[in-house]
Amino acid sequence: MLTLEEIDTDLYRSNTVYPDPYGLFGGQVAAQALRAAGYTVAGDRPAHSLHGYFLRPGDPSRPVIFEVHRDRDGRSYSARRVVARQGGQVVLNLAASFHQPEDGPDLQAEVMPDEALPDEALLGEALPGNGSRLEADTVGIDFFEAGRRPESDPAARPSRVWARAQTPIPDEPHLQACVLTYLSDILTGLSTLTTPAPTMLLTSLDHAIWFHRPVDLNTWVLMDLTGHSIAAGRGMYSGRLFSEDGRLVAALAQESLYRPNPVGKPRPRRVRRAT
């Protein structure tokens, strides 16, 4: 999914296609756009931030074309813009910045929530309720629900999960950041404010990530999401991602469309309990 075909200078194509009645997953096209940008940057400059705007629904059964604009290459930073198109129409605009790591202080104010690592013996089992194993539908990542859902609302979506790749990911910082980008859009932090009805539209409008430290998705990463506001047909949440040893590896923020679906079509479940 994250291997793109170079069809011209700074022009790439994703040939990952599959049937999906709910449309192209935003985390996928954002991860692929970041991958395309990274192809044009020196290998010693991993991404440190991205900001993407989702402009139109995409069609997962058709390839996506990614056009990379090399806005700047400085002494230690590189800036890229990526336009993702299908059928000549823009589905995503993404800006990403890359930085050659420097020596200096390494401090963080955030403290990782006190959540036990997943029990390896339970990963192959289907577990009801709290502590469930979760899976992404279209990428090889295990999700394991952390914490407990409110007893008053057992149907609430999880907002705190452990995530880990099912198969080894090469020790390539840019590729690791792309996989993290994919998984960062799978859940919604709005579930900490309310339990959206199954027919509510929760479509990503924009998505931002800051990559603070190297991440290794061959080990567990804790994703902790918090909803901040639902108003005027939009919802906004933020999130923190921690390594097993408590390092803050990334932070994210997203604003989503939040409105009833006029046709009453249930929204997709990008994450499901294993069966």
What would your notes on this structure say?
There is one protein chain. The chain has helices spanning 26-39, 173-183; strands at residues 5-8, 11-14, 47-54, 64-73, 77-86, 89-99, 133-136, 141-145, 160-165, 200-211, 221-231, 234-243, 248-260, 271-273. By secondary structure, it is mainly beta. It has two domains: 1-100, Thiol Ester Dehydrase, Chain A; 122-275, Thiol Ester Dehydrase, Chain A (Roll), CATH 3.10.129. A 14-stranded antiparallel sheet has the order 1-2-4-5-6-3-10-13-12-11-9-8-7-14, covered by helices on one side. β7 and β8 form a beta hairpin. α1 packs antiparallel against α2 (173-183). Mean pLDDT is 85; it is low at 125-138 and 269-275. This is Thioesterase family protein. Residues 23-99 form the Acyl-CoA thioesterase-like N-terminal HotDog domain.
Task: Determine Rg (CA atoms, Å).
Answer: 18 Å
- Using the coordinates above, name the CATH class of the largest domain: Alpha Beta
Write down the overall geometry.
Answer: globular
How does CATH name the architecture of the largest domain? Roll
Helix content: under 10%
The helix-and-strand class reads mainly beta
Question: Whole-number average pLDDT?
Answer: 85
| Number of E-type strands | 14
Instruction: Return the CATH topology of the largest domain.
Output: Thiol Ester Dehydrase, Chain A
Q: Let me know the CATH homologous superfamily of the largest domain.
A: Hotdog Thioesterase
Number of helices: 2
- What is the total domain count? 2
Beta-strand residue fraction: 35-45%
Strand order of the largest sheet: 1-2-4-5-6-3-10-13-12-11-9-8-7-14
Low-pLDDT residue spans: 125-138, 269-275
